[in-house]
């Protein structure tokens, strides 16, 4: 569909779908902040792909609820329950939600905080892919090691 008077072909997306996707992901973050993991997982497709880059002990691909839950338990345990996510901004369209966040935690007497980008793919009303981008990959790998 051509819009904007500049001759650009832009996807035809509805604000309703983008807003629905945004709300789905925001509710999942809110539930995570309260420790309500069952509500978080209701937002996820059964076969969600969860990607964490890097070379640290948490890096890798996790597939499905069982593996993602084990990943959650691992980083929450490593941080002694101090892991937090602050949402800085949310951008959404008809199939993607990008969340700019600041993650923080304490571990072994050290504090860590990092800007991150969380890129979500939403299909059929569920988050089907999560891709994480760290602000400082080496520092994150070192903190969790």
Please give a structural write-up.
It is a single chain. Helices cover 33% and strands 42% of the residues. The protein has four helices and eight strands. Strands 4-3-8-7-6-5 form a six-stranded mixed sheet. It has a two-stranded antiparallel sheet with strand order 1-2. The longest helix has 19 residues, at 15-33. The model has no long low-confidence stretch (mean pLDDT 91).
For the largest sheet, list the strands in their spatial order: 4-3-8-7-6-5
The fold-level CATH name is: Nuclear Transport Factor 2, Chain: A
DSSP summary: helix tally: 4
Mean pLDDT: 91
Order of helices and strands: EEHHEEHEEEEH
Q: What summary fits the major beta sheet?
A: 6 strands, mixed
Total strands: the figure is 8
Q: What fraction of the residues are assigned to beta strands by DSSP?
A: 35-45%
Shape: globular
**Low-confidence sequence ranges:** none
List the helices and strands and how they pair.
Blueprint: E1 2-3, E2 8-9, H1 15-33, H2 37-42, E3 44-52, E4 60-63, H3 64-78, E5 84-92, E6 96-107, E7 110-123, E8 126-134, H4 137-144
Parallel strand pairs: 3-8
Antiparallel strand pairs: 1-2, 3-4, 5-6, 6-7, 7-8
Which characteristics define this entry?
145 residues, 6-stranded mixed beta sheet, alpha+beta
What does this entry show, briefly?
The chain is an alpha+beta fold.
């Amino acid at each position: 569909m051509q819009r904007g008077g500049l001759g650009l072909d832009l996807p035809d997306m509805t604000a309703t779908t983008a807003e629905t996707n945004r709300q789905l992901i925001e509710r999942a973050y809110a539930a995570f902040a309260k420790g309500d993991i069952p509500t978080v997982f209701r937002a996820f497709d059964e076969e969600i792909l969860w990607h964490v880059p890097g070379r640290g002990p948490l890096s890798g691909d996790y597939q499905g609820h069982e593996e993602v839950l084990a990943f959650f338990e691992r980083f929450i345990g490593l941080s002694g329950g101090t892991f937090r996510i602050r949402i800085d901004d949310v951008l959404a369209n008809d199939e993607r939600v990008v969340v700019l966040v600041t993650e923080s935690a304490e571990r072994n007497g050290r504090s860590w905080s990092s800007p991150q980008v969380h890129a979500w793919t939403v299909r059929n009303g569920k988050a089907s892919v999560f891709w994480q981008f760290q602000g400082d990959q080496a520092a994150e790998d070192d903190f969790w090691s």
